[in-house]
Amino acid sequence: MFKTRVISGAAIAALMLVFAWLGGSYLALFLLCVSVTGLYELYHATGVLEEGRYVNAVTCAGYAGTCVYYILLLCGRADMMTIVFLLVLVFIAIMSVYVFTFPKYNAASAAYSFFGFFYVSVMLGFIWHTRMLDGGIYIVWLIFFCSWFCDVFAYCTGMLIGKHKLAPVLSPKKSIEGAIGGIVFPTIFGALYGWCINRYAFAGFPVAACAVVTLIGTIVSQIGDLSASAIKRNFGIKDYGNIIPGHGGVLDRFDSVIFTAPMIYFTAEYILKIYWVR
To answer: I need a surface site. Which of 6, 20, 60, 214 has the fewest CB within 10 A?
Structure first.
């Protein structure tokens, strides 16, 4: 199991890094596939979709909104105002299905349908937004480094010195010491990474900025991981799916990335604006 987990994890990481490097339409299409799969997993986990079904009336808007969102990315028209407008349209579409088919679907189904669209599709899309920033080809790696390195260092630190439980009911194996290790060591790496890209690639993104972005990313990454676990506990499931051997579903692998991507984007954009203004 461990060997399978390592191999599949490495394969997913390699795929993600390649598409992030390619950027543009390649990255958008890859994220569309990941988002649709993740959306399907979440709809099944929350009971919005029955076993064996891929779509129903109340989930159509979530899937359609996802496709429209990534088409906008491909066309270069997904500015923040357009995204907010799309969120409103998807919400109205879902509520329209809810009220005009009442009582076929309940309020929880409508809520989870919209939640899935925002949680999975929109938030994952910030990987693309980050890649499109000035110097984004370098900054986008921080999304994955924050998520994956945080997991590794949190696990290692927790195994070595972990004594105090972080979330004893939700995740008994996670410790406060592990959480701190998952923040400190990746942040040091972020600073070193910043030094390297400025020294050898002339990235123009300050070393201190890389450290700050990584620090924020690792904190949010752990919240994302615990949030995905909380949803699974609420619905009594172990994994979101079985598409990735040794890991489970797409959401089991991208749970922390979903939270990290938008935070890295907004933090990096804010820092870039200050940096370039000066």
So the answer is: 6
Find the length of the chain.
278
Closest to 107 in 3D by CA, of 193, 149, 22, 46: 46
Q: Closest Cα to residue 59, out of 43, 75, 47, 72?
A: 43
The pLDDT tens digits for 49-58 are: 988 889 999 9
How buried is residue 199: exposed, middle or buried, by Cβ count under 10 Å (0-12/13-18/19+)?
A: exposed
pTM above 0.85, yes or no: yes
Task: For residues 147 and 182, give the distance between their C-alpha atoms in angstroms, rounded to a whole number.
Answer: 9
Mean pLDDT (whole number) for 88-101? 96
Unique residue bearing structure tokens 């060997």: 3
Residue with tokens 């990335």: 257
Tell me the residue type at 270.
Y
**Could you give the angle at the alpha carbon of 102 between the alpha carbons of 100 and 103, nearest 5°?**
170
217 φ, ψ to 5°? -60, -40
